[in-house]
Each structure stands twice: as C-alpha cells, then as structure tokens.
C-alpha cells in the first residue's frame, strides 16, 4: 500500500484566485474517469467478498469454510428473545466445548442460519445481522425465523452484503449520467477540480456550544462555517475531531441548516449521535437496530416512528382490519364479502399511507439525520436534500461511498486523517487499481491547506509517544494537552511504580534471540517468540496493578493475533487483555499498547510494515505506555522504521527479549 504522508501544503486558507485552476485541473481526475475506473473495481471487490463468504461456492467443503472462518458449524441455539423493536435475538453457542472456533465474523455482518446438515446453497432458516460476539457465543438478530427449526444442530454462514454493492453501483450510474440538476450540481465540479472552492472572506465568529474547545478546534470550526462548498477537517490521532464535528453540526443547525451526518461505520455514526444527544437538537438515526449501540436506540428512526401520531393511527387501522377479516370469515353472501374486501383494500392503503407519513414526519421534523454512508441511499431519504453533508472518518471511507451522501447536499465537510489507514479493500487487484484511494486524500492532494484545517492539540498520548508521530507525519505541529503530556501508568489508581510501569516507551529487541518469523496455512506471518514476550510484558504490567482491560496487544498480522489469543486464553489474569490487528484497532486507544511487529528474517523483508500510516496508527493508540517488540536488524532495513527504532533507542527503555524468557 502506498503511503501518502506529507500531503498538506503551506498556503493561505483564503479562497484561491481562479488562476490556480490550471494547477488544480492537472492534479485532478475527471468525473468521467472516476466513474469508468471505479465501476469495474466495485465488481472486483464484490467478487472478493463473495469468495471470502461461502454461500455461492457450492463446491467448497464446509469444514474448509469453517477453517477459513466464513462458517461456524455445530452450533446450538441457547436463547431466543424478542428485542430491538420486534427483532428475534438468537444466542448461538458451540455444541463442542466452551469457546467458539476461531472465525472471521464481526458484529453487523449479514449471516444466514441453516441446519448443520443442510446442503451448501440450500434455502436458509433465516437471514440476520450479527448483534453481539463473545468468545463463547454469537447473538444474531432476525426479522423472523421458524422456532421449530432451531432444535437441530445449526450452522452460520457469512454472506456478501449485496445491498451495499448495488448502492455503490447505483451511485456511479447517477454520477455518470451527470448531476447538473441535483442539490450537489455546483459542488461536484469543485470536487473534480473544475471549479475553485469558495470560502467566506470574513472570519466567521461563533459562540461555541462546547466552551472547552481549544484554539485549533475553534479555528477549524470557524473555517468550516465559512466554507462555500468543501472543507476538510484534518484530525490527527486524539485531537478531538469528533468534538469539532459535533460543534460544526450544532452551529449549522443554529443557522437553520438541515444536516446529513454520516460515517462509513455504524460505530462512528453512533459516536456522533451520543455526543449530540447532550444538546437540544432534533435528530434521528437511520439504520438496522442490531447495528446500533443500545444507548442510541431512542434516537433510532424505528423507535421515533413508534411514538408518532400517524403510527398510532396506523395501529388503529390495523385493528379495524383485524375485525374486518373476522367479519369476512363469517360473511355468507357474495355481495357483503365483496364489500368487506373492498373496505379491506381501502384500509390497507390507509395503513400504508399513515405508516409512510409517520416516517416522513420524523424525518421532516429532524434538523440532523444520521446514517452510515450506504444508509444514505435508503428508501426513506429518497428525494430529500440537505444544506450540509458532513462525513466523519472520511479518510476511512471509499470515495464512491462518500458520493452516496454528497449527492444529497450543496455543501460538504469531510473529517478524517489521511495519514492513518485507508479503508480495507479485500480485492488485491481493486486495491492496486485505486479503490482504496479516498476522497479525503484526493482533495488534500488537490487543494491542500486551501480547503483544510488541522487540529493540533491532542488529548490522548504522553508527549514522548506523540513526538515521534508528530515529527514524522505532521510537521511537528502537534502539541500534547497538559492533562496528558506527562501522564504515566503508575499515575493510575492501584498501579505500583515498577520497572515495567515506569517507562513511557519500551523497545524489546528480539534480534539474536532465535525468534524467526513463520507462515501459517493462510500465508499470514507470525512469530511465536514475540508473542511469548508480549504476553510476559502484559503479565508484568498486570502484576504491577494495571488492569488487563487497559492493555492492548496489536500486530499487523492476522496469524499473530490468532496465536496471541490462544496463549492469552491460558492465562486467567489476562482475560480482558485485548488483542487485535493494527487495522482493526484504528480509532481505539488503551493506557498501555504492546506492538508485536513480527518480521524477523535473514532477507530483512518488512512486508506491509513499511506503510507509514500503519505504524502511525499502531504507536498512537497508546495513552501512557507504548512498548514495541521487534527485530531491530530486520525492520531497520526500511528507512522509516529505522528512524522509529532510533527514536526508541534514544527515548525508550531498551531491553533484549532474552530478559523476558524463562
Ligand atoms: N477541547 C478539548 N478539551 C478537553 N478534552 C478534549 C477536547 N477535545 C477533545 N477532547 C477529548 O479528547 C478525546 C478524543 O476526542 P474525540 O473523540 O473528539 O477525538 P477524535 O479525533 O474523533 O478521536 P480519534 O483520534 O479516535 O479519531 C476525548 O476523550 C475528548 O473528550
């Protein structure tokens, strides 16, 4: 994956004169080019997702699918509950022992449930959405499922989310037809470098709803409010990007704007909903209830519709229809039967209209509508337009997905950090051909600081953790807020000052310790020696009083995650220690982060460790301690990683892995 560091340019934040348009054009891709390049890449990505799932590959053996993590066999249904506004919640556990086999299911995945014996490709008992995952069970939300089919041994299969791909392709079709008439007619040419972006000539002053905003957040909000079409809010790790997004939304609503607020992931959307809920703002969250956090369910469209007047009227009509139906059963002569049927049709139409009106009323009365990017193409929003579309975590969203939302508004604000990891693209081919290139990164390249403002105060990391990332990726512009600049693990309640908790940075070198990397069946790289060392360090922290839930081990390689989890499960005191890939941990933080870099080979190959964005994400997850375990000889073959090692050599406690082995 190519790195895109250092794209922010110097320059004034005011509107650029038209004479710069030629430069913009030379750097930009045209709308036609974008559409023709992207359409086949969506197909490639869909194919990659389908081949990772199993429903269409009739020849694939079930046990192979389970090994690959796209199916779980031999499940039993241990609980059925109704919840989430009428959904059926099924808890599934393994028939064989406590733990589920290792799998690739995540919350919000679309899945189908079948009996264990059902043929591959046969009709499922039901299709649902994964609601909750534990080591021992999975809970899936179904609209409907036959209860009597649930007694047999069951299996769960992951399926590709067809709706998402259809929506992405529909958006490309809309774009390629031309959007001269829609709400985004004047915005689209700016996003393709054909027209210059505009900004208010005056600095916009505002009285903040959040009185704690720092100077860079205030400046960014002001610039956002003065943007005529596009603005990029650049938020390096821990700098309060979502805090600024929430302030922009509140200020826009105060001005009378109708706002569509989106993000690629449900969790990022819910994060905004939760924070907006602290203010008096009329908002509604669209989305499948199983994909929403429990604390935002009150804001969900379904729950607001349930409370709407028109819904109550629709319920009355439904009751009347029930009565009519029983009359119909009793009616004898043809004429009265015909009259009842006619009345039933009329009532059915009224019920649908009232139900639809209830949805329309909720959406009309809301100042802010929040949904995922693909959710922005849902039926309920058809024909609706917005004064502003704001997209959080835009640097982690496919450009084509951003367009789904952007086409509904006349102005657009993207918040993100193109120096962290872009969205995951499953198809290697589509990735190479540019599907993962984000709109945020493209516009940062096209316009630079002309349309951007960077947040510069961070509220997460000790300054020693921050300094490396600030210097390497953000032109040394980030400062640590005084509340975190010097915080250490032993400042936490119950944590003793020991040789393990005291240092902010630790480098454990495995060079010369006979800990070569290996490959697993799936060709993912792992390093058992490093895994052992990582867990020994984690155990030392726990023994010094650090809570295991405050520690995270992250690594670039999936195989390393698997062996780390197997080893962790043998140690009770590390039960709540989180283990994840770096990519899967983006957006998260822990008091102590242990990074296992894995690569150790005589050829000094570092693979995708050389993506600056991945190491940036890894190091900046840590609040009070960052411990890197690596083979300094191998990783120093890459210049960027060499500078990281040198930084740690200078500022960290430098240890040899041999000190961690029995
Ligand atoms: N002005 C501020 N004063 C004090 N704390 C702040 C301020 N702005 C943000 N924070 C705190 O910083 C943390 C990160 O904020 P927020 O979640 O808004 O950042 P983010 O940039 O969206 O996060 P990420 O780095 O994960 O993308 C939160 O705990 C938040 O309360």
TrEMBL record:
Domain (Helicase ATP-binding): residue spans on this chain: 209-460
Superkingdom of source: Eukaryota
GO cellular component, one term: chromosome
Molecular function terms from GO: 5'-3' DNA helicase activity; ATP binding; DNA binding; hydrolase activity; RNA binding
Record localization: Cytoplasm; Nucleus
Reactions that this protein is recorded to catalyse: ATP + H2O = ADP + phosphate + H(+)
Keyword Hydrolase: yes
Keywords noted in UniProt: ATP-binding, Cytoplasm, Helicase, Hydrolase, Nucleotide-binding, Nucleus
Leading EC class: hydrolase
Primary subcellular site in the record, as a coarse category: cytoplasm
Protein name as catalogued: DNA helicase
Protein's organism: Juniperus scopulorum (Rocky Mountain juniper)
